């Protein structure tokens, strides 16, 4: 039957992570006929191996350190039935912890699949690939292939851990982050190769869980590309907590020798541990997708090029998430998936402003940021002034014995409009939202300062920083 413009729109989504899930849900809500092809589980790597289990593991690490924090505030812990003050020891049963994390992830994946099905989305278990700009195939296993007509296709296939040929993971002692959740026992000595966000988060978590940790950083400091003051705070905390941080050290090879792993650095020195986590970046899952045949353009690294409404070089094909050349965050994947479908189906699509994306690094303390960065301001890419307010001056922080961290605010010279900020604090992920709102809504430092912050509260540090920038408008 000939297709008539205005017929029910066939939307096919390949990949059910944050990008694909949101695209499918939005499509169903807008009345499209939606098919989602997913090969592993709805929720994607974000739910099954990346965000959900890692943040749940970090919650365990935080719980493990609470007794020590309480002691610093003067809480005495007594041996049962005595007045003897003891320093409590703790042990992590990693097998039990991991089973809980995987179950949490599995359940969330099932809940998300159920939500999609309730909205009328057809979920196809299989591996999707583009046939052309109006047709998608799903390999269902056993040689079976299903084909779908697509008025619009959204490709949201994510990425997988990068592996170095000289440091191949064996799933037992040399691991990618997706393999950590099968460990039964806490690594005695975990060597983390790569000090980007993934490496820093796991190094912090495993140190708090009780492992000896060595972090191998190829740059001169951890968290390259992040706010320098923030990275300095984290590195100081890591060192204070007994982590070994090797900077300007590139891992050339990682090999297993019995129950040990040996990491050889580029200067020839070796580091020996019980386990090694490879956190050296990700590769987009775009090989074999039929992109070239469909004339979808990619970058040299295989990321799909998209514009601000997530459209690719082919107007009927959109792409969202880690397989694109945008910022690899679950929140961005979500926004791209939604925006793509709004745009394709003729609803009001807001082009995505990457500058306004709030992000957080779940180390301890956390680092949250939004907007322009200090280095961009210093390079003259944005006109702004910078104010840094140390948390140790904040009354609530003093009460809670928080000594590390700060709130940093960036405001446009003259107008005083908030253009960015960084928060380094426990739960910085919760504190960044007022700054994200200020950046999105172009609030001035005076408007932020005039809002009431609860006294005493850590958000008071945000209004105090905004107040300190008041003179800008003068
Ligand atoms: C350790 C770690 C922690 C992270 N923590 C955070 C965090 O705290 N906050 C945050 O915002 N971001 C975080 N991220 C980033 C986040 O995980 C990604 O940005 C997010 O998963 C991207 O979503 P996506 O939909 O693009 O891809 P994914 O979540 O990877 O989903 C893609 C899906 O596509 C499927 N697929 C692939 N190819 C095909 C095919 N051909 N056919 C059918 N299905 C296919 C896969 O099975 C997968 O289910 C973290 C990343 C890592 C590695
Ligand atoms: N909390 C979060 O939101 C969160 C958490 C994890 C990841 N992510 C997302 O994933 C993205 C990627 O982060 P990532 O840390 O996985 O990858 P990355 O590419 O940012 O970092 C990998 C690091 O490994 C280093 N490296 C590579 N080879 C090495 C070697 N042989 N020896 C030593 N170091 C080596 C690189 O120089 C780099 O600094 C982030 O930008 C972020 O968007 C987000």
Walkthrough of the structure:
GO terms for molecular function: flavin adenine dinucleotide binding; NAD(P)H dehydrogenase (quinone) activity. Belongs to the class-I pyridine nucleotide-disulfide oxidoreductase family. It holds the Pfam family Pyr_redox_2. Residues 10-337 form the FAD/NAD(P)-binding domain. Its cofactor is FAD. The chain has a five-stranded parallel β-sheet, covered by helices on one side. It has a five-stranded parallel β-sheet with strand order 9-16-10-11-12, covered by helices on one side. It has helices spanning 18-29, 44-48, 51-64, 66-72, 94-118, 197-209, 228-240, 330-344, 374-378, 395-399, 428-431, 433-440, 445-450, 460-468, and strands at residues 10-14, 33-38, 122-125, 127-132, 135-141, 144-149, 152-155, 159-161, 174-175, 189-193, 212-216, 244-246, 251-257, 260-265, 270-273, 275-278, 282-284, 317-319, 359-361, 366-371, 384-390, 406-412, 418-425. A hairpin with a 2-residue loop joins strand 13 and strand 14 (260-265). It has 474 residues and is α/β, with parallel strands linked by helices. It contains 14 helices and 23 strands. The model has no long low-confidence stretch (mean pLDDT 96). The longest helix is centred in the first third of the chain and has 25 residues, at 94-118. It starts with 9 loop residues before the first strand and ends in a 6-residue tail after the last helix. The radius of gyration is 24 Å and the shape is globular. It folds into three domains: 10-47 and 99-161 and 283-355, FAD/NAD(P)-binding domain (3-Layer(bba) Sandwich), CATH 3.50.50.60; 165-280, 3-Layer(bba) Sandwich (FAD/NAD(P)-binding domain), CATH 3.50.50; 365-472, FAD/NAD-linked reductase, C-terminal dimerisation domain (Enolase-like, domain 1, 2-Layer Sandwich). The protein is 30% helix and 24% strand. Bound molecules: flavin-adenine dinucleotide (FAD) and nicotinamide-adenine-dinucleotide (NAD). Flavin-adenine dinucleotide binds next to helix 1, strand 2, helix 2, helix 3 and strand 4.
């Amino acid at each position: 039957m000939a297709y008539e413009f205005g017929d029910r729109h066939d939307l096919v989504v390949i990949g059910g992570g944050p990008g694909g899930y949101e695209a499918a849900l939005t499509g169903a809500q807008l009345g499209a006929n939606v098919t989602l092809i997913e090969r592993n589980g709805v929720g994607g790597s974000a739910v099954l191996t990346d965000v959900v289990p890692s943040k749940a593991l970090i919650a365990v690490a935080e719980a493990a350190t609470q007794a020590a924090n309480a002691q610093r505030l003067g809480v005495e812990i007594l041996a049962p039935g005595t007045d003897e003050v003891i320093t409590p020891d703790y042990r992590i049963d990693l097998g039990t912890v991991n089973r809980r994390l995987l179950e949490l992830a599995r359940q969330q994946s099932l809940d998300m699949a159920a939500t999609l099905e309730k909205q009328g989305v057809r979920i196809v278990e299989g591996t999707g690939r583009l046939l052309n700009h109006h047709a998608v195939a799903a390999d269902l296993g056993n040689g079976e292939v299903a084909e779908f007509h697509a008025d619009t296709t959204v490709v949201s296939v994510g990425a997988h851990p990068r592996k170095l040929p000289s440091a191949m993971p064996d799933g037992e002692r040399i691991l990618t982050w997706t393999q950590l959740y099968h460990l039964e026992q806490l690594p005695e000595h975990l060597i983390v190769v790569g000090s980007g966000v993934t490496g820093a988060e796991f190094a912090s978590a495993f140190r708090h869980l009780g492992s000896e940790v060595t972090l191998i950083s190829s740059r001169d400091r951890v968290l390259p590309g992040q706010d320098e003051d923030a990275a300095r705070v984290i590195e100081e905390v890591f060192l204070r907590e007994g982590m070994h941080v090797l900077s300007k050290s590139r891992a050339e090879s990682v090999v297993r020798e019995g129950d040990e792993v040996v990491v050889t650095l580029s200067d020839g020195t070796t580091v020996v541990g019980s386990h090694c986590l490879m956190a050296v970046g990700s590769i987009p899952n775009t090989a074999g997708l039929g992109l070239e045949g469909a004339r979808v353009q990619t970058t040299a690294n295989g990321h799909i090029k998209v514009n601000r409404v997530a459209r690719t070089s082919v107007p009927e094909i959109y792409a969202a998430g880690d397989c694109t050349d945008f910022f690899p965050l679950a929140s961005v994947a979500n926004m791209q998936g939604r925006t793509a479908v709004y745009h394709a189906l003729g609803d009001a699509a807001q082009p995505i402003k990457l500058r306004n994306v709030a992000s957080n690094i779940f180390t301890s303390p956390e680092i949250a940021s939004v907007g322009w960065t200090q280095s961009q301001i210093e390079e003259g890419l944005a006109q702004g002034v910078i104010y840094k307010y140390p948390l140790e001056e904040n009354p609530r922080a003093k009460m809670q014995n928080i000594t590390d961290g700060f709130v940093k605010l960036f405001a446009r010279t003259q107008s005083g409009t908030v253009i960015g900020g960084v928060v380094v604090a426990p739960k910085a992920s919760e504190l960044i939202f007022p700054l994200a709102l200020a950046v999105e809504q172009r609030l001035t430092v005076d408007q932020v300062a005039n809002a009431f912050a609860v006294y005493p509260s850590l958000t008071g540090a945000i209004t105090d920083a905004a107040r300190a920038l008041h003179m800008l408008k003068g």
